[in-house]
Amino acid sequence: MDNKLYWCGVDLLWAYKTLLPSIARKTQCKHHAKDILHDGFLCFALSSNPSRLQEPHAYLRTIVQHLVVEKYRKDTRSQNYLDSIEFEEASVPSPEHLADIKQRLMLLNQIIQDLPPRCREAFILFKIEGLSQKQIAVNLGISLNMVERHLIRALLDIRSAREQLLS
């Protein structure tokens, strides 16, 4: 092996003449392709997998393929996020709609505040804090059956208030 052209068993000429253009075709950007290849070299160097030394080209190609897929997924998530931001900006609610939402939230808050103290506490722990019914029973020092009763009472009161609002 010629020390000038090989690094850890990888023919660098092969990596830059064959593998890099292949990456560039997949990413459609030579700069991203170089970044992926260099990240691949880093992963290759840090790996302790024995196949790294047995089949260095195949191992590096596999690493690079995984990095290309990872980049694609990351780009897709980023684009989806950007699209959602654009959608949110495009669909800003009107001041009237915001006032309506605020009024409904205030009514819901009042309904919850009007629940008996234990019932309100169980409801908040369940719906807001995300505790299980068992955890609520332990926290409040009551039976699981009593937790269920409190939650049912809270939900029925909220449903009744909702129906009154809608009628």
Characterize the structure shown:
The protein contains eight helices and two strands; from the N terminus they run ββαααααααα. With about 170 residues, it is an all-alpha fold. It folds into two domains: about 5-90, no CATH class; about 95-165, Winged helix-like DNA-binding domain superfamily/Winged helix DNA-binding domain (Arc Repressor Mutant, subunit A), CATH 1.10.10.10. It has a two-stranded antiparallel ribbon with strand order 1-2. Helix 7 crosses helix 8. The longest helix has about 35 residues, at about 55-90.
Number of domain modules: 2
Could you tell me the mean pLDDT? 83
Number of strand elements:
2
Range of helix content:
over 70%
Low-confidence region ranges: none
**Individual helix count:** 8
What strand order characterises the main sheet? 1-2
- Beta-sheet strand percentage? under 5%
The Rg value, from CA coordinates, equals 30 Å
CA-CA gap between termini: 85 Å
What summary fits the major beta sheet? 2 strands, antiparallel
Q: Helix/strand/pairing class, anyone?
A: mainly alpha
State the shape: elongated
Order of helices and strands: EEHHHHHHHH
